[in-house]
Amino acid sequence: MPTAKYFNRYPPFPNNVPVADLPRVSIGKLIANDDAESEQLFRACRETGFFLVDLRHSCEGETMLKDAELAFDLNEKIYEIDQEELMKHAFKPPGSLFGMGETVKYNITINRYKGMGKTKLEDGSPDRIEFYSLAQDDILDINPRDNPELIQTNRKTFQDFFHHAHGIVSHLLSHLDRHMALKPNTLASLNPQDKPSGTSLRLLKSLPQTVGSHQTNLPGHTDIGSITMLFNIVGGLQILPADAEDNDGNWRYVRPEPGCALINMGDAMVQWSGGILRSNVHRVATPPGEQAGCTRYSMAYLVRPEANVSMRRFVGGGVIPQLVDEEEDEDIRAEDWQRRRVAQIVSGKGIPKSIGGRKMEGQKMQKAH
């Protein structure tokens, strides 16, 4: 999340709501290959699938925070653009199925501009979030396309964001390589910046709500892709503990923290790791306390596999479990795998639930270095 000066613009996050107990790791310590920090990262990716990464006190991290603040300012300005202009860049249902976001129940995921209420919640009511997705392929000129003038004139700002965010994520993936006994750069090579993919930066907005009310703005889902990095200031994101029933009393708010980004694993990481890593269900609800009366802006850097890489489970190293009799493994392209995952959700065969978190009992753990 951006620095404290941005948090000071909003009411404080309340202390009387249920909050998820998420670990926090330091990007500076991870870059320095700190053993304890690396172990905490790997444990979080297996147990909750969510953790905070503290970007302060590191040159790379501080640069990322500055990028996030610039992008936050532009996020607000995007929604000052005339609605007629935004609609020129709106998605065309059903749209492309590859690389467009999360497995939202009953709905195909969306790229480019999505107006508020264009998808449905579990109860059939309209969603309460609008967003504009900037495709990495577009911004990094792999497959450039037209956008509103505000975005086109600030392409360099968004290019910097993509490059620096990729660098932060690559550090995290390098530690997962080591813990899962993979060759260096294995995971990063499956999520490159110079080849076509569905990676995007999603700029989101939800309108103020009545203080004390409770509504779901975006329904429970997992992320289809590899890894997500979220920046937000106003609360509202909730996660459901993996072993908990889906009722309102079990959902836990995530408290935004200055100087930190929130990281979560996606379904692709579960697939590659043979279920060791966890992709956890999450949703967006009414912000807690006085924050409910605020317009909520957030940014999600959604990393997707390169379109043509294989989704086959990794083998070797003695950490990732081998296939057992009832399991199947197939050499399917990431683009086709993601299309199928979305189709399962749309058909109702893939109701969102947490996946992964497979126990590693009796298996040798790989040291961080």
- End-to-end separation: 29 Å
What order do the strands of the largest sheet run in, or round the barrel if closed?
1-2-10-7-13-5-4-3
Structural class: alpha+beta
Number of helices in the DSSP assignment: 11
Q: How much is the average pLDDT?
A: 88
What is the alpha-carbon Rg in Å? 19 Å
Question: Could you list the spans in which at least 5 consecutive residues all have pLDDT below 50?
Answer: 94-110, 363-369
Overall geometry: globular
Strand content: 15-25%
Oligomer: single chain
Total number of beta strands:
14
Instruction: Tell me roughly what share of residues is in helical segments.
Output: 25-40%
Largest sheet: 8 strands, mixed
Order of helices and strands: HEHHEHHEEHHHHEEEEEEHEEEHE
Account of the protein in words:
The chain is α+β, with helices and mostly antiparallel strands and 369 residues long. Helices cover 28% and strands 17% of the residues. The protein is built from eleven helices and 14 strands. The strands form three sheets. An eight-stranded mixed sheet has the order 1-2-10-7-13-5-4-3. A four-stranded antiparallel sheet has the order 6-12-8-9, with no helix packed on it. Strands 11-14 form a two-stranded antiparallel sheet.
SSE layout:
Elements: H1 4-7, E1 24-26, H2 27-31, H3 35-47, E2 50-54, H4 59-78, H5 83-87, E3 113-114, E4 130-135, H6 136-139, H7 149-152, H8 155-179, H9 186-190, E5 200-206, E6 216-221, E7 227-232, E8 237-239, E9 252-253, E10 260-265, H10 267-272, E11 278-279, E12 282-285, E13 296-303, H11 334-347, E14 355-356
